[in-house]
Specification:
Chain lengths: 377, 388
């Protein structure tokens, strides 16, 4: 193999695929990145067997070939090279990759490409086409609510369902639920419902930077995998096997009190409360008070107390429709939900101190977030 | 203004409780404690038994040799702690400035109480006797040290067969004079070793200590010497400590004979976990760390602990966690001498409610009902199926 690439292209490609490298694997080749010539371009791939990322970069190819390079050594080296051409030459017999950039000459010990697990070659026919901006926003609004507890694998995933021209993502960690809907520009031929690891979607959101491009998604039959292609990057992930909880059942159908409030003000108040709440059990109290007279606004009093550090109390003006409510939430949950809401105003629907609260962006029916309160004992 | 500190000690508490439940024991030599063939010791003994030389903490086998017709009554610790709680509540009605120092002993600061100390003491003794059928002895002085010694003096000077019902009041200013004739070992901090070293100096009474140069006591006994000198003069500034901060709640049990049956050990662990959970709930606490303690027949002791994602006061959850720890550390049929369970990292019982219930909320509701029934009708009225 003998190829010439631009340092910045190679550096960018390595930064994209390196997130799938598993540095502490018992299989040494998984700490490496596969580099292979591929129809006039250089293909970079990394996988941890659950998640695989492939990226193609422009290259001048003088001689075809492939090998796997230790990710850390290769990545650090390329980042340290001058922004110029980089020549990669493989000595097949010794599996030694000569890397030349400017006046810098390096030889890296590689592992034969034969040992690298084969990544699926996707058949993109019948792929579902998703708008990058929408899809990235969906991921940001949903994936954070997935669980990190390995004891319940299903909850570590995001349920993605497609039905005709509707696509829905939902994630729940057992205490909160995030649901986001969007429309497809081209209706899907077949309905689809899969659980994708939240981590894979987060990586996909990270690599799909170009707002103009579309994301193509395929779920090959009986493979337990999902493939995404965006421009010159492919992300393949194992699906999570299992049944996602029936989340529709969790979404309250009614409320006793609806509080309209400025998203930014409530978010600020939550951030302040969290400074004290995080010292204890993360609990913040929301005292939602109805207006006392016609000319007076209602208000939400957010407060948190820490035995060690002190206490905080912030009042945010609100329009309270229905009765007054005193409810306690994990303020981190509330803050994280408010952070992904784009509308200037947000509605908080509550029914009782021990019943789920619903957060909705005002004027946007595509998103909703359910948070269970905390019981104060 | 000198303080007025009242020290109350229930006379032969465990025995007195047993007598109220079984009047036929009255006046007879009996002891509460374990059986002699099961490494039992005397936890408490009746005054009739005391006259034969039986003392608490004595091995039961020795107690029987001293007093062959001694009646052995098995201990009912839960009953005692319930009665103790009633006594303490009675005392708290008088003043919230209460420091409970053991199951049957407490200090009260009655400096600001309007009635004269002697009146208060007699009223307390009468109330506890009439309502709970328990005899008690009281010492009153200007500090904790002298008050406690006053109670002991009152108990020792009692005559007759019945409980002492002691009441000793040391007026402010009389502390040193009151202590002076008493043997040195009645002073806190004078154990057998210090007592022997004092005896070498020909110091036998508290008064002897008070008269000895303080500088020499400090030279011989270090910081303890300074305390000795001050205490011997009847000086003690320590305040009433209102509520000890609870750091952990635990329960343990030593088997009378080593047990190797998995079922028996797991049942014990369930019971202990249930008791821990119950006392957490009673104290309005929940804890995040569950700890298992286990002692093998060779006396090696292990502890294993795990931290939960959120604080718990729930029977089920503590039992489940404790059993998991047990199964990790103990092989099936491995013999066990002692087993215990504790919960720490305590705080208010705040918990995140779940979106969908995995059974915890249901078990909590059940718990509340069981607690209520047990509070009303006693612990035996309802129990978990797996500990019956």
């Amino acid at each position: 193999m003998k190829v010439t690439v631009l340092q910045e292209n190679l550096a960018r490609g390595l930064s994209i695929v390196s997130r799938a490298v598993s540095p502490r694997s018992t299989l040494p080749v998984l700490s490496n990145i596969l580099i292979a010539t591929d129809e006039g371009r250089l293909r970079l791939s990394a996988t941890n067997l659950e998640l695989g990322i492939t990226c193609w970069i422009a290259a001048r190819i003088d001689e075809d070939g492939s090998t796997t390079v230790p990710a850390r050594t290769f990545g650090d080296l390329i980042n340290a090279l001058p922004s110029d051409q980089v020549q990669l030459t493989l000595d097949v017999k010794s599996q030694s990759l000569h890397v030349k950039g400017g006046t810098s000459n390096n030889d890296i010990k590689c592992i034969d490409a034969q040992e690298f697990p084969p990544l699926p070659v996707p058949e993109m026919e019948g792929a579902i086409q998703l708008n990058v901006v929408d899809f990235k926003e969906m991921i940001q609004q949903v994936a954070f609510a997935a669980s990190t507890d390995e004891a319940r694998p299903v909850l570590m995933g995001v349920l993605l369902s497609v039905d005709k021209d509707k696509v829905t993502m939902a994630a729940a960690d057992g205490f909160r639920l995030s649901v986001r809907k969007a429309l497809l520009s081209n209706p899907a031929q077949q309905p689809l419902s899969v659980i994708i690891p939240a981590r894979a979607l987060n990586e996909l959101a990270r690599v799909s930077t170009d707002g103009e491009e579309a994301i193509y998604m395929v779920v090959p039959k009986n493979r337990g995998q999902v493939l995404f292609r965006v421009k010159d990057v492919e992300v393949v992930s194992q699906l999570i096997d299992g049944t996602f909880p029936d989340y529709q059942q969790i979404i309250p159908r009614s409320y006793k009190s609806r509080t309209l409030v400025s998203t930014a003000s409530l978010l600020k108040a939550c951030k302040q409360a969290e400074i004290f709440a995080r010292e204890g059990s993360n609990v913040a109290r929301l005292d939602i008070k109805q207006s006392k007279g016609e000319m007076q606004p209602g208000e939400v009093e957010i407060s948190a107390t820490s035995e060690e550090t002190g206490k905080n109390e912030t009042i945010v003006e609100a329009t309270v429709d229905g009765g007054s409510v005193l409810i306690a939430f994990n303020v981190k949950f509330l803050r994280e939900a408010l952070e992904v809401i784009r509308t200037p105003n947000v509605a908080l629907e509550t029914s009782a101190a021990n019943a789920p609260g619903v957060v909705r962006p005002v004027g946007d029916d595509n998103f909703l977030h359910v948070i269970m309160p905390m019981h104060l004992g | 203004m000198p303080r007025v500190i009242l020290h109350l000690d229930l006379d032969a508490f465990f025995c007195a409780v047993e007598e109220t439940h079984n009047p036929s024991l009255r006046g007879k030599p009996f002891a509460v404690g374990g059986k002699p063939d099961e490494r039992g010791v005397v936890a408490s003994c009746s005054y009739a038994a005391r006259r034969r030389g039986v003392r608490s903490a004595m091995p039961m086998s020795r107690a029987l040799r001293l007093c062959p017709n001694l009646i052995i009554v098995p201990a009912r610790h839960r009953l005692y702690s319930e009665v103790s709680k009633q006594v303490m509540e009675n005392l708290r009605n008088l003043t919230p400035l209460l420091e409970q120092i053991s199951i049957d002993e407490a200090f009260l600061d009655i400096s600001d109480t309007r009635e004269p100390p002697a009146r208060i003491a007699l009223d307390l003794q009468t109330a506890i006797k009439n309502e709970l059928h328990l005899p008690s002895s009281i010492g009153i002085a200007s500090n904790k040290l002298v008050a406690k010694i006053a109670t002991e003096v009152g108990k020792k000077s009692a005559k007759g067969d019945g409980p002492p019902f002691g009441l000793t009041i040391v007026p402010a200013g009389q502390e040193a004079a009151f202590l002076a004739p008493l043997p040195a070992n009645m002073l806190w901090g004078v154990g057998p070793k210090t007592e022997a070293r004092l005896a070498e100096l020909n110091i036998h009474t508290i008064g002897d200590i008070a008269n000895w140069p303080e500088s020499d006591l400090i030279r011989r006994f270090g910081e303890n010497g300074r305390d000795l000198a001050r205490h011997a003069k009847g000086q003690d500034e320590r305040p009433i400590v209102l509520e000890r901060e609870t750091k952990s709640i635990s329960q343990e049990i030593t088997y009378s004979v080593d047990v190797r049956e998995d079922k028996v050990i797991e049942k014990t662990l369930r019971e202990l976990s249930g008791e821990v959970a119950r006392s957490l709930r009673k104290n309005d606490l929940a804890g995040k760390t569950v700890k298992l303690k286990i002692r093998w027949p060779d006396f090696t002791t292990l502890t294993r602990q795990t931290t939960l994602s959120q604080p718990t006061d729930n029977d089920e959850e503590i039992i489940r966690t404790a059993l998991k720890l047990l199964r990790e550390v103990r092989k099936p049929n491995q013999a066990v001498r002692l087993i215990g369970v504790g919960v720490s990292s305590l705080g208010a019982p705040i918990r995140q409610l779940p979106l969908w219930d995995a059974g915890n909320e249901k078990s909590r509701k059940l718990q509340e009902v069981v607690d209520e029934l047990q509070d009303k009708f006693g612990k035996q009225v309802i129990k978990r199926g797996d500990v019956v």
